[in-house]
């Protein structure tokens, strides 16, 4: 009888947990089988990374505070991690999917991500984070919808369309990796893909026959939300739709002041939401264009993606020249002024009922200042490398967060400099020491000749300023302290700086990186470590039960920990929770 009582009490506790998880914060399940397939997006057969046999992968569509459970089966021939760009992983850098926090998923193994999209809304994407794999695909959209009780600051759109744009090479990521390892540049991309497809044949010379292109069918008079993500390798793309205005409404989880643009520069890793009304006469289809920016257009003409906007009452195919990109080859301020015009909608509610602007970032005292300077690639120990502030980051074999958890010494140094080094550049695993609940100012200084964009995991930061030249203390006089956009990826123009502010309220180890894949691969990244000295589960979740181990902790990994899980499917997980809830219902009746 005692054992029966114990079993009942145990089940009651499980039922209480399950009912809370299911009723309060629903679980959303996905099964990702990541594998190679052969595709020819630019007319040349090549190996691409697919998810469930599809390229690009499926769009994850959830609601604020949902629990997202993604079982990833690695069928590649190399290690794999999936990261969720812009998803803040509140209290759980364990789920972040980058080498500083996670051991990789080996080939033929699977691992289940389990995280909550806590207090977030907006447009994001996911991708494989290791060794240039994103250059071969493996990416997809990630939508977080508002809860029903929180109104969106515009009329409900008639449709929702995800658009993934990016420069593309017909060489796969392993070939690109070999080029970088040999000290070479990647060279001019072979084209631009839109949702994994090549360009519509707008020009017989530039676009060969037989290219499969993307078509978006729309109804006249309707308004659609277009979520556009630059998932490419290293090229800023100008996005535009022939004869249609782009009403900017949201970017990476923040509602913006709504402004019309005829085109917008979208930098590598960035995401934007536009409201587009189908208000044209449909005399023909319309071009959707994503073309390379800040390059010699004579040599880069082929680096243009073209899709088709097709009204249901269209009278013919799109024809004629493409809509022109901004003509600012000799006016470097045009794009920056456009970027400065993107403002936070301080009166709109985001994931919570209170207005976004109720967090008055401009009145908070800064506790730490870091200047992260990028320079052209350098040679360190005979290898071509990229640096931030004179340090080229070396990923440790034991992830930083795991090393802390198990007190493994000499894995990294908590000594990233607040100002750029003055001596010779060096290879280091050097990490920023963040102050929990501090307010950090980071200046991203780009002294290279190429556009760069940078991403911060775990946070949305406030973009308070950008300008050409070198940042100085006096530059703070130009800061926007009221409605600077909060986002997770920001561009830094060549020979310019961008300043961001971050409220360090999310405990964990968080990646700061160049989004340009070549710069990232060659060492342009670091991590920021944020520790609550009280070490409570209220500010950081414990190590997950299914954590992988590697490096100095490899002996802790048991093969059966993974192989035993490979037979569990998403449907079986759903069935388990269903049966559990039935048991929970029957306990009060029979006991």
From TrEMBL:
Protein keywords: Cell membrane, Copper, Glycoprotein, GPI-anchor, Lipoprotein, Membrane, Metal-binding, Signal
Q: Which family does it belong to?
A: Belongs to the multicopper oxidase family.
> InterPro entries, per this entry?
Cu-oxidase-like_N (IPR011707), Cu-oxidase_2nd (IPR001117), Cu-oxidase_C (IPR011706), Cu-oxidase_fam (IPR045087), Cupredoxin (IPR008972)
Q: Where is the Plastocyanin-like domain?
A: 34-147, 160-313, 398-534
Q: Does the keyword Cell membrane apply?
A: yes
Signal peptide: which range, if any? 1-23
Q: What is this protein called?
A: Monocopper oxidase-like protein SKU5
Q: Superkingdom, according to UniProt?
A: Eukaryota
Note one Pfam family from the annotation: Cu-oxidase
List the Gene Ontology MF annotations in alphabetical order: copper ion binding; oxidoreductase activity
Q: How does it sit in the membrane?
A: Lipid-anchor; GPI-anchor
Mind telling me which GO cellular component terms the entry cites?
plasma membrane; side of membrane
| Known cofactor(s) | Cu cation
Q: Where in the cell is it found?
A: Cell membrane
